[in-house]
DedA family protein (Lentzea sokolovensis), 197 residues
Amino acid sequence: MEWITRLMEALGSPGAGIAVALENVFPPVPSEVILPLAGFTAGQGRISLVAAILWTTAGSVVGALVLYGLGAWLGLERLRKVADKIPFVTASDVDKADAWFDEHGNKAVFFGRMVPVVRSLISIPAGVSGMPIVKFTLYTAAGSLVWNTALILAGYALGDNYELVDRYLGWVSTVVLAALAIAIVWFVVSRRKARRS
């Protein structure tokens, strides 16, 4: 928190954008903390509210493009080979996931930008599936703009109580992580049963 505060004090709104870009790639501090803090700082008149929204959205896009690039570098063929070496996973699972993303990718990227944890991860399958980079950038920017604006305005409105945003949204991250863990356990158990039968 202290580092993010100093970054914004030193660089203004671009500092908030840099923090969000880094959070997308290396999430030590979630955007649920960074964005309300940017709104609070704007409320104190130390940075511009509009600039904070624009810079953090730009930071979101930059961070997402890094992970998109990782997915594109990995590619479908390489991912299929990796999948065949992982217990209970096959190349056909990768093909099914890719087919799902081809059908629902636009919505997944747009709405995924508003879901903790998924916000960062959704960029990788977009790159793997070869989603056109212009389309990916537009949907990422649109989803990030909605999310960033909501959280920055919340921090702006709450003032000294801006930390309430993270307190109430923290449970969402917990629920998402729990859901992912349950899905992985269910997948492994169902595969083991299928192999035994």
Notes: The first helix runs from residue 2 to 11. The two ends are 52 Å apart (CA to CA). The CA atoms of residues 35 and 150 lie 9 Å apart. The chain has a mean pLDDT of 81.
